[in-house]
Amino acid sequence: MSTFTIFLALIVVVAFLLIVVIMVQNPKGGGLSSSFGGGGTQQLGGVKKTTDFLDKSTWTLATLLLVLILASNVAISSGNETVDSKALDPDATTQPLPATPLPTTNNNADTTTAKDSAQ
């Protein structure tokens, strides 16, 4: 398993967690804190604490996602594997295609021979 594959798996997990945290939030302050309902929320940490936690976790996951993306870019460029694509290989030489002349056909000659043979 290459380093890039590990970074890719971590990026997918962090992106999924970031989506979940953002979807749980409510722009008006309801979100997860209002789903517990009533006085029980005050015992769990309060509405303000839940909003702070979701806000901090959003920024933390977004920062972690950015760092993982940049680190995966470094992992790609420092790989010692061979390049399979000629487009990515700077040492590859391209050879021009040989110029082949197109066959010329005389449309009048073809139609007259077809008419002559049909008669």
TrEMBL record:
Region annotated Disordered sits at 82-119
- One Pfam match, given by its short name, reads SecG
Q: Which UniProt keywords apply?
A: Cell membrane, Membrane, Protein transport, Translocation, Transmembrane, Transmembrane helix, Transport
Q: Which residues cross the membrane?
A: 6-24, 58-76
Tell whether Transmembrane helix is among the UniProt keywords.
yes
| InterPro entries, A to Z | SecG
Q: Where is the composition biased (Low complexity)?
A: 90-119
Enumerate the subcellular locations listed in this protein's record, separating them with semicolons.
Cell membrane
Superkingdom: Bacteria
Q: What is its main location?
A: membrane
How the protein sits in the membrane?
Multi-pass membrane protein
Read off the NCBIfam families from this record: secG
What is the protein's known function? Answer: Involved in protein export. Participates in an early event of protein translocation.
Question: What PANTHER family does its record include?
Answer: PROTEIN-EXPORT MEMBRANE PROTEIN SECG (PTHR34182)
Q: Which family does it belong to?
A: Belongs to the SecG family.
Q: What is the protein name given in its UniProt record?
A: Protein-export membrane protein SecG
Say which species the protein is native to.
Gelatiniphilus marinus
| Lineage per the UniProt record | Bacteria, Pseudomonadati, Bacteroidota, Flavobacteriia, Flavobacteriales
